[in-house]
Amino acid sequence: MKIYTQVDTMNEVVTFRISRMETVYEIRNGQPDVPHKHHYYTILIIREARGMHYIDFTAHTLTERQIYFLSPGQAHQLVEEKKSVGYIIVFSDQFLAENNIPMRFIDELRLFNAFRESPPLTMNPAELDHLSSYCDELERFYTSGLKFKEQAISSLLNLILIQCNNLCGLNSDHTQNLEARHSILQNFKKMVEEKYTDWHLPSDYARELSVSADHLNRVIKTLTGATAREFIQSRLISEAKRLLYFTDMSVKEIGFKLGFDEPANFSAFYKNNTGNSPSEFRANK
Question: Over 90: is that where the pLDDT of 141 sits?
Answer without folding.
Answer: yes
